[in-house]
Amino acid sequence: MFNAMFVIVPIFIGIVFIFMIAMIASPKLRGKMMSNQFKSIRYMMEESQDDLAKLSGTAVGIKKQILDENEDALTDIANKEAKIKSVGIKSAAKAIKEGLTETDSIYCKHCGSVIDNDSKFCKRCGKEQ
Length: 129
Ligand SMILES: [Zn+2]
Fold this sequence. Notes:
Blueprint: H1 2-25, H2 27-47, H3 49-69, H4 71-101, E1 105-107, E2 114-116
Antiparallel strand pairs: 1-2
The structure holds zinc ion.
């Protein structure tokens, strides 16, 4: 009994070791093992196809029920959010418009270079504004 164990266990460990070395060394073997993984996933999907369909059907049903039961509250929330967003967009648009029109600079009447709007003489050509 013990003698048999002393033979079988080292042989088993040896086989596992050789298999691991082969897995590391051979891309082809690794590919085959990975391909087996994909096959097993495919079998699993096929086996549980009905369950998956039932599950997604239940999820859709629950979502629909929640939406039906809370339609008024959800509509109210959506409207309020839209209102808040529109206020934000309006103030952003106003800020952009002000940024575009409000300016501290003017153009020189004589040479056209940009000068401060309160300067009396052009910095570039020196002529009076
Ligand atoms: Zn000028």
